[in-house]
Amino acid sequence: MNRPKDPKLREKLLERAVHYVLRNGVGGLSLRPMAKDIGTTARMLMHHFGSKEALVTDVLAAIEQGFAQRTAAYVGEERSVGFTVSRMWSETSAPAMDASLRAMFEVWGQALVHPDRYEKLLQWLTEPWIDMLRRRFERAGHPPAKANILATLAIGAFQGLQLVRLTSGDDARSAAALKTLMEWLDPVSATPRSSAARPRVRKRSS
Question: DSSP states of 54-93 as a string?
Fold first, then answer.
């Protein structure tokens, strides 16, 4: 007879596993060393999570949920798309979030190499965020097809610039690039040019 799963124990194991992944990454991850480190056994991890891939997926889901909770306070506000993305950038660029982002990108690479093992993970790495921004662009007056394209561009650039930031260590350059992108995508949130900075239009001589 299979031992029944204990939801509270599973939650504790998942919390410890998250901290383990943030410290050690997922490259070469093995259940035995992880289990020893977090005070359990590999058999117990398999019992509660089913496989190493399922455990890693749940770890990333927990990290993602934490990020979603941090953004929930302002994502629903009736502000510009630029405001939403700028706040997302501020939240995810904080030094305390770097370990989470590194783990996310590391697992993302594993998921691309082994999509059959991480099918669930690939479904929510980008689509929920694109869908969230798509609705914001629609509320700003863009038709659905264009809103979907703009949201895809914004999220793709956002995630790519986070990767550039982490690999280059140049926070200011990546932040400036994102700001420029949002000024293109969302004129309402762009900083207006002063009248002195506006290019003059020459009148054609008659």
Answer: HHHHHHHHHHHHHHHHHHHHHHTSS--HHHHHHHHHHHHT
Average of per-residue pLDDT across 149-165: 93
Q: Which domain holds residue 20?
A: 7-189
Closest to 162 (Cα-Cα) out of 149, 150, 171, 153? 171
| CA distance linking residue 202 with residue 200, whole number of Å | 6
pLDDT averaged over every residue in the chain: 82
Q: What sign results for the dihedral spanned by CA atoms 56, 61, 62, 63?
A: positive
Is 14's pLDDT higher than 90?
A: yes
Tally of domains within the chain: 1
- The answer to whether 45 touches 31, Cβ cutoff 8 Å, is yes
The alpha-carbon radius of gyration of the chain (Å, integer) is 22
Higher pLDDT, 148 or 6: 148
Q: Residue 125's domain is classified under what CATH number?
A: 1.10.357.10
Q: What is the pLDDT of residue 39?
A: 94
**Does residue 104 belong to any structural domain of this protein?**
yes
Please check whether residue 13 is in contact with residue 44, taking contact to mean a CB–CB distance below 8 angstroms: yes
CB 46 within 8 A of CB 3: no
- Give the Cα separation of 162 and 167 in Å (integer): 9
